[in-house]
Every structure is written in structure tokens, then in C-alpha cells.
Amino acid sequence: MLSGVRSLCKGWSVRGMSLSPRQINRWPSNESSEPPTDSPRVLITGAICFPAQYGKENVILSDIRRPPTEVYNMGPFVYADVLDYKNLRELVVNNRITWLNCLRLFVPSTIGAFGPSSPRDPAPDLCIQRPRTIYGVSKVHAELMGEYLHHKYGLDFRCLRYPGVVSAHTKPGGGTTDYAVQIFHDALSTGHHECYLRSNTRLPTMHISDCHRATIEFMQAPESQLSLRTYNIAAMSFTPEEVVEEIRKHLPHLRVTYNPDTIRQTIADSWPVRFDDSNARQDWGWKPAYGLSELVTDMLASIPEKNNNARFLPSGTPTPPGMRSDGGA
């Protein structure tokens, strides 16, 4: 899941600042010291999402942890602790972050913000939540704090509740929805997957590309179009059984066994079966691009394991150089 606070600010630039370790000066020396006016300078904390349309040099990624190589190579990266106000002010000034006068704050939420007493099929934007995990409790706290700051001080707070997110470039971390990532790695590396959820456990899921696009479109939507501060977004909802059948259209020999884990199964059974994202679709035009078949095709084509074991490649995929068609070196 996406984590951390992503903040976007509007309308400030500063001349004549001296260089410091927290300043990234990427402007050519023969040009004006002002950043281009047609593209904002964006500070992203958590270093996960990258709004590519603004240009690599205009997006400053930050985190309190050492970034993975792929994140570090995306563009400028700085250390930033969102609890350190002085540090954040220095970053904004020295890196000429724009979108500041009317602060726009985005905090990602999750399917985990719902609990067993919430409506499950579908879960609406506004309902009883009462999650039973500390992860979910912390997300509900963030949602409510944002709502409070919006109503009390006019903060342009925005929040999306993401379903399970599937990406070929992020290893599964053991979360409840991560079987939907691990199964692709297993399908391409060994041809066997042991699922820790029951075969009929239905959960909302989304491709990472839709996740990124939804975030950017939501942040760009005029505030006047928003009827809510926190929205559900949805793309598809499937069971392990259904994703297995879709994968078998490409890899017919995939073998799957089921060994439900009590803790993760209990969590999954307390979460929504489907998200109602009708408000996101109506207010700011949200529409997913990936369904189950598109997700499966993309994952099988993109996961690195496809280069390690040719026996499980989808039919018609060229065998990598130096590897026999039977998987031997």
C-alpha cells in the first residue's frame, strides 16, 4: 500500500537563497533563477508516487529511510521528516517548492479503514468503520484529523481509500492482499503457489498504474468539484480462485493449494468485498483502465522472474538469450 504523507503546495518562489545540503539546484546557470511557471515544483514525502507529467527535475522525492535504488534514480531525493517543521520549511524554500500558499495535503488511506461492522458489498464512502487492526485505526485517525483541519482551518485535505494494489516492481510484504502479488512471482518461478486465503475470499484490488493515475487526477481536481474529503476508489474485485483461472489462460500448468492463515483470513473477512466509488466517478471523473485480464497480462509480462525460469513463461514469449526452452542454463 502507499504510505506516508504526500504534500503538494501552490504559488511560492524565492530568489537569492544560499546553497545548503538540503537544496537541490537543477536550474541551468544561464537561465532565470525562477523555476518554469508552466510546471509546479512538487515535494513528495514517502517517496512512492511519481507524477511523471511534471518532469523528473520538478519532483522532489523524500523519506526518512534509505530509498531503494529505483526510487533514488527517479530524480532528486532528500531526507525529510514530516514531524520536523523547521526541516520542511527549509526544504520548501531551498528547493523552490511551489503550490504552497493554499496548502494541499494528501494522505492515503486503505481498505483496512473498514471493520466487521461496516457494509461489505459494497462499502460506501460514508459508513461505520470501526477497524480492528492498529493499521486501520491509524488510517481512520488520519481521515478524521484531515476532515477536522479542513472544516476548522480550511485546509485543502484530500484522501483516497485504496484497495489492494498490485505491482510487478514491488515485492509482496506479507499483507492480507499480497497473495495477489506473490501468486505471479510463484507462477513464473516455480509454477506452484500456496495461498493463505480461502479460494472464495473476494477483495477489491487495483493495478499500480491506476493507483498512481487516480492519485494525480484527484490532486489536480478543482476543489469546487469535491463533495467529500475522503473517497473510495475501485477497479476490480476478485477471489484467489478467479485470478488463478485468469493466470491459467497464460500458464495452464499453474498449481495452487490453499492453506488459510487464521489471522489474515480473519482480517480479510472483516474488509469490504467491493468498494462503492460512485462519488469519485461522479465528482472528479475517476475511471480505472485495468480489469482482471489486463492486470494478469501486464504482471506476467513485467515480473523479473520471467527471465529466470523459461519453463513457466506464457506461450509465445521469446526464451531469454542463453537459456534453453526447458529452463536449463
UniProtKB/TrEMBL annotation:
Residues 307-329 are annotated as: Disordered. Residues 77-234 form the NAD-dependent epimerase/dehydratase domain. SUPFAM superfamilies: NAD(P)-binding Rossmann-fold domains. One of its GO terms (biological process) is L-threonine catabolic process. One of its GO terms (molecular function) is L-threonine 3-dehydrogenase activity. This is L-threonine dehydrogenase 2.
